[in-house]
From TrEMBL:
Keyword Oxidoreductase: yes
Protein name: Nitroreductase
Top-level taxon of the source organism: Bacteria
Gene Ontology terms for molecular function: oxidoreductase activity
Cofactor requirements of the protein: FMN
InterPro entries for this protein: Nitroreductase, Nitroreductase-like
Keywords: Flavoprotein, FMN, Oxidoreductase
Signal peptide per UniProt: none
Length: 103
């Protein structure tokens, strides 16, 4: 499948099957999320993986009263940093310099 064709394909899950996805697949999704481009390349968010059934029920009740929230095996919550300032950018640059991404 070529790149543009892959981008044209979309699917919105109406309901979940209740099956748990393998950890290796979750790890691959999280790695793709980590590598995805973002504003200024800073990745100004943290991805929280929620799989605890009682917490999923609470999230469904409070935030998104949709069955997919409690039917999924893992809920990915993007916690965005809203206060990007110079010290945070400096820290990001320092961490990047200390731990460069292998090519």
């Amino acid at each position: 499948m070529d790149f543009l064709k892959a981008l044209h394909w979309r699917y919105a899950a109406k309901r979940m099957s209740g099956q748990r996805i393998p950890e290796s697949q979750l790890d691959r999704i999280l790695e793709a999320t980590h590598l995805a481009p973002s504003s200024y390349g800073l990745q100004p968010y943290v991805v929280k993986v929620i799989s605890d059934r009682s917490l999923l029920a609470q999230i469904r009740e409070e935030a998104a009263p949709q069955p997919q929230v409690t039917e999924c095996s893992h809920l990915l919550v993007f916690a965005t940093m809203t206060n990007l300032n110079d010290p945070l950018v400096d820290q990001f640059i320092q961490l990047t310099a200390e731990h460069p991404t292998p090519v």
